[in-house]
Design goal:
It contains 16 helices and 14 strands. It is of the alpha/beta class. The strands form three sheets. It has a six-stranded mixed β-sheet with strand order 5-4-3-6-7-8. Strands 10-9-11-12-14-13 form a six-stranded parallel β-sheet, sandwiched between helices. A two-stranded parallel ribbon has the order 1-2.
């Protein structure tokens, strides 16, 4: 949404934009005439700020009736499953969905785009769903379901393994930010539909759920015995997840990091940030910095490839200027691994310049007592670096992890093959 502000009511216009952002969870852009900054503003404006930022949800009768109708469908389902998506996280509605899931003991899965919108440590969590690339035990529960309650989810290519999901709209009730679809029908439900109101009202409902499902996922706690063997992507992913602590935020760049980390259960009170919708490489580093600034109580852990980092590495200056202390893993494998898997495994155009990332903090002006860097080549190197990172939470940690150019998570190799075949290459 873009709004050009006039000289007439600029304060009201700005407040309107802020309300829009809170209500929809979407970005907004404001074009300000230069003179607006010089207009005197009444100090009483401050009194209105709490109301503008108020996130309380009042549910209208029409949406209460709509939710009651949805619950009637759930009452007749034999094997219902809840699918959670990114809109639940964007609008901070996770607490409502979590309450609904816990009180009804209904199994739930999430898409990688909305990962950790609801606590993955709940016993009802069956794992992150990704179409044909899902773990077989996850697929079994989803495939056998006779009703998928989709909350804030978008079935996009990268989070459904190129649209290989086992279900369609005929057995779905889908609630999204701007539309509702009940078994493929939407127009009969849109008159007064409000996503936030319906999610809030749903949290107060109980339905007849007798579904006993096979519990598959426990919080990942991989049994790792580190050796002096060269580091691999598989060991790296498992060791990184093992090292996560409650309250931390894992940020994964598109490519090997996202594909390797997003399928794993991150357990209790760990957040996850990823961007598979547009898969814009270079996104994760500045996104991690912005997220860390917004939530300084949650230490951020970033996993990124060197090809992606080279697009936005200049933001390291901002990280140091703001005295942030995240942990940044740079996967150094000499190129764009995703592109190698899709086409051109040995093509020179998928190579990137070889940099020494351990020198970067100093090059961007960091003081010696502000950071620590590690260059990791073996499994033992990685475990030691992880231990040091956990002991030095008052410093920015940069860990360069060196791997073979063709090493990638198995799921990414499969996805690369799917895309390559789809493109006829």
């Amino acid at each position: 949404k873009v709004k050009d502000l006039s000289f007439n009511n600029p304060v009201d216009d700005i407040n309107e934009i802020v309300k829009y952002m809170i209500r929809t969870g979407k970005p907004a852009y404001i074009t300000l005439p230069i003179d607006v900054a010089k207009i005197p503003v009444s100090k009483k404006i401050k009194e209105n700020i709490p109301e503008i930022l108020d996130k309380k949800i009042s549910v209208r009768n029409d949406n209460k009736k709509l939710v009651n109708k949805l619950v009637s469908y759930l009452n007749t389902a034999q094997k219902p499953v809840v699918l959670v998506g990114h809109e639940i996280k964007n609008l901070q509605l996770g607490k409502y969905v979590e309450k609904f899931i816990k009180e009804n003991k209904v199994p739930f899965t999430d898409l990688a785009l909305g990962k950790c919108a609801v606590n993955e440590g709940l016993p009802q969590f069956i794992g992150t769903y990704n179409g044909d690339l899902s773990d077989e035990s996850i697929k079994k529960v989803v495939d056998s379901s006779d009703l998928i309650l989709s909350l804030g989810a978008k079935l996009t290519d990268f989070v459904t393994a190129m649209f290989t999901q086992s279900f369609d709209e005929r057995k779905m009730i889908s609630l999204n930010n701007n539309i509702i679809s009940v078994f493929g029908e939407s127009e009969n439900y849109m008159d007064s539909y409000d996503f936030r109101e319906c999610i809030s009202e749903l949290s107060n409902k109980k339905f007849n759920n007798n579904y006993i499902f096979d519990k598959k996922i426990e919080q990942n706690n991989f049994k790792l015995t580190p050796t002096n063997k060269p580091l691999t992507q598989d060991f790296y992913d498992k060791a990184l997840v093992n090292s996560l602590n409650q309250g931390e935020t894992l940020v994964a760049e598109s490519g090997t990091s996202f594909s390797g980390l997003s399928p794993m259960n991150l357990g209790n009170s760990v957040d996850f940030v990823g961007q598979p919708l547009w898969a814009s490489i270079g996104y994760s580093f500045p996104a991690m910095i912005g997220s860390q600034l917004a939530d300084k109580d949650s230490r951020h852990i970033l996993s990124t490839g060197e090809g992606s980092l080279q697009l936005t590495i200049q933001e390291l200056g901002m990280l140091l200027k703001k005295h942030l202390n995240p942990v940044v893993f740079v996967i150094n494998n000499n190129g764009y691994t995703v592109e190698r898997l899709i086409h051109g495994m040995n093509a020179s155009y998928n190579d990137v310049p070889e940099l020494n990332y351990t020198l970067m903090p100093k090059a961007f002006g960091a003081n010696n007592d502000q950071f620590l860097t590690y260059n990791v080549n073996t499994e033992i190197d990685l475990i030691n670096a992880l231990k040091e990172a956990s002991l030095n939470k008052d410093k920015f940690i940069l860990i360069q992890v060196n791997m073979k150019y063709n090493d990638a998570p198995a799921s990414l190799a499969q996805l690369g093959e799917m895309i390559s075949n789809k493109n006829g290459k």
